[in-house]
Amino acid sequence: MKVLTINTGSSSLKYRLSDPSEETVLASGLIERIGTDSSAVTLESAGMTTSHELEIPDHRRAFKVMIDLLTGPDSGVIGGIDEVDAVGHRVVHGGDRFYESAEITDEVQEAIREFQDLAPLHNPINLLGIEIAKELLPGIPHVAVFDTAFHQSMPETAYLYAIPYRMYRENRIRKYGFHGTSHRYVSRRAASLLDLPLKRARMVTCHLGNGCSVAAVDGGRSIDTSMGFTPLEGLVMGTRSGDLDPSIVFFLVNKRGYRLAEVEDILNRKSGILGISGISNDVKTVLEAAKGGDNRASLALEIFAYRVKKYIGAYIAILEGLDCLVFTAGIGERSPDLRRMICDDLGHLGIRLDPDLNQRCVAEEMVISPEGSGVKVVVVPTDEEEVIAQETYRIASEERE
After folding, report:
1. Cross-strand pairs, 142
2. Does residue 343 surpass a pLDDT of 70?
3. For the domain 197-384, what is the CATH code?
4. pTM of the model
């Protein structure tokens, strides 16, 4: 069965064509800068990568370019788009309605639309991708794989805020968590890599990129995560503040004359590593500045590592121990320096790094803790597209039966 996975962003389209039953990837690619006359188009197939620039005014045109690439006489890997058996879509927010992936019916589409208020930057564009794909690839199953679904196993004690309960009942204000597809993939992959029984494994998974979240995973199920009602809660991130006293918002608006929209923009786009360092949200750039003696760059990285370390400790407490600590995403996979800063001084909790293994590990699966360490520390490159493909294959196969 050939499955096309789609991740529609505000100005991008990420895609992969695979056969999950054979565990093979036929082609993958990315179209960036949609809406400009110099959109970047990339296709990877049979170990070869081709890229070029093209004028792509909107997402509809981007989808047609993707189909042309997959079926064209030069770059094509299938004879026609009718060879695609199912399409899987990444959808950021499924609210508290979707505990697992779902075939996209009219009812499911309407539910995704209802959750637009909870994810105004993501769900509308995810929905646009669904609508275009269903038009261009009709008559086959389309499946929504929700970022929030993995975290729906959290207990009430973890996902409810201490505000009037009616605000949850009437407005669905609660912790939802994000990056769930990534946390799900790396926790299962780490268990397989370490030959740990998933049903008994206690893990903390750290998805550290420009957006960052930590999850406590007990027996393969999320029992808590750092992101909340929105992706702003939790860790210090590239441009997001993470946790802070909510009264700061009232102070800035009521006492200093800021507009609410200004404060929202500051907390989401001008804070985090960028806000503290004053240099960049890119960790590599800030690390270079820190090594060159920039004190604010060093402070930004220390605060980042401190916040991750604090969440790891909290999650060990609720897990009642730890078998495995997993690092993934851009920073988690590619920054030995940040992994070292996070794990420093956690030896009393059984967390230690092998300095040589840690330094050598860049974007590859590797155990980076010493032999015989009480807690296995692992780097696992995330593969959300693999989860989307497998979920789509599972649901499309059930429909065929």
Report:
1. 87
2. yes
3. 3.30.420.40
4. 0.91
